[in-house]
Amino acid sequence: MYIVLMYDITMDEGGARVQRNTFKICKKYLTHIQMSVFEGNLSELNLMKLKKELEQYIRDNKDSLIIFKSRDERWLTKEFLGLKDDKTSNFF
Amino acid sequence: MGETFYIFKDGDLKRKDNSIVITSLEGDKKNLKAEVADEIYLFGEVNLNTKLLNFISQKGIILHVFNYYGFYSGSYYPRETNISGYLLVQQVRNYDDEEKRLRIAKEILKASSYNIYRNLRYYNGRGINLEEQMKNIDSLIKKLDYGKSINELMGLEGNIRKIYYSTWNSIVKQDINFEKRVKRPPDNMINSLISFVNSLIYTTVLSEIYKTQLNPTISFLHEPGTKRFSLCLDIAEIFKPLIGERMIFSLLNKNQITEDDFDRESNFIYLKESGKRKILMEYDKRLEQTIAHKDLGRDVSYRYLIRLECYKLIKDIIGEKEYTGFKIWW
Fold first, then answer.
1. Mean pLDDT score, B222-249
2. Burial level of A5, CB count in 10 A (0-12/13-18/19+)?
3. Alpha-carbon span B66 to B69, nearest angstrom
4. Is B61 an 8 Å CB contact of chain A?
């Protein structure tokens, strides 16, 4: 499953902690492409694991996290304006 | 299916935030998603520590190391978790039983030569006349059935490969004089290319065997020597024509790889980084390529085909179903 994940964390007291942890968890599973946006290919199981980990930190009344799912990367066209980069590449 | 990362730059590989991060000498960073990574190929000079090795063991990630010249040095793989004493005993028994071993070896060679034949048939259909060579290979494949010893089989395989390689000069459109396969060291561009690609297939097979209960040291076709995982050689034999050689033809015929990708001073033995990178990108793409599997009734990637081959072998070893080698069916 191809996934685009983005989050919005309210930066009040305790917000920094949530943001920090969300970032750390996301980057284990997905590629960091922009400030609070991640993308990548995940299996059903890995997505469940990711969500489980995130649920510990995301505060239901303050933070929001969106996951866009697509069956396959093929069904997703990506367009760049401005800087183009290939952060999702497996080559370094 | 996990992801594979290829690292060309020099730098530090570290555990950070329960993930793996590579920092190049210039300070660029890349995060190698620890939860989804399966393999990491290291081509650059990379520093790492036991902290990292412990971590990747925990995550079941395999590290393949290549030296400065792009030759395979070895792999670090985590403590075996998929082990089965029962299967090991059966595997050894099958190896020790002359008849059974011969049957499996034959299957492997038949599949491999059939795939070679299919490669030739493809190019024959594209206006290169290979009828005679195809006929010769076909008759040698038939002889495989009557082989009475491993040595005899190996001899036949040698002959098939010789005929196969003799056609390369007409298949490859670039002007390279490829006479015969030369190893240690390879003596021209094509030989270096074959060596490099074969080592890649070898590592992929090792990674897939690692995920099964098979023991990579006990092989059937090749003699299980010391100092190497010979079962990888066995299984790689089947997939070389399909994955490796087809890729070599296409890379050369589309002029994606030319003399410029090799180090001229070394007499074209060493690939430049640009060359390695191009080959790996193509290789990675090919492993992910899928085909509709007849028996499973779903799409399967080339990489997974290798694993299926291991499973079929296991079934034969434990006496559940006779092994039939993988033959291209499309």
1. 82
2. buried
3. 8
4. no
